[in-house]
Amino acid sequence: MTDTRDARISAMLDREYIRTPRLLYSALLDGNATDRMEEVFTEDAEMTVGTMKGLDEIKRSQRDAYQMFDTRNAGHFPFIHAIANYEVTLTGPDTSNGSCYLLDFVTDRPGAQHPFLLLGRYEDDYVRVSGEWRIQRSVLDVLWPQD
Prior knowledge:
Blueprint: H1 2-30, E1 41-47, E2 52-53, H2 55-69, E3 79-92, E4 95-106, E5 116-129, E6 132-144
Parallel strand pairs: 1-6
Antiparallel strand pairs: 1-2, 3-4, 4-5, 5-6
């Protein structure tokens, strides 16, 4: 009985730790700290927001996106990546996958204009590296807008 209970507690803790990289990604990108993306991704990670392969390319691409959207030169929060409806499935002792909704807001639009940049759904593959969960592959399915 204790082994089953301990296994369930361990799985619950893993699922919570697995959510951390995706949430941290939003905070780092929105806060202009893309140089810390190694806390989120594996060295060989892939992202399909565009096509990025490897940590260096992810950092460079996210830094460029940040600069493009920081139209007010505020230095922080030109967009806000809100994450919701997170699901995590453990697929092995050091692997898992997860999905969540993305509500991507931009902050430089006038009040009368809606703030949505896009609505989407992330699908991520995770691996445990040196005891820490990291995203190895991330696919963003953009649901709105369609153009």
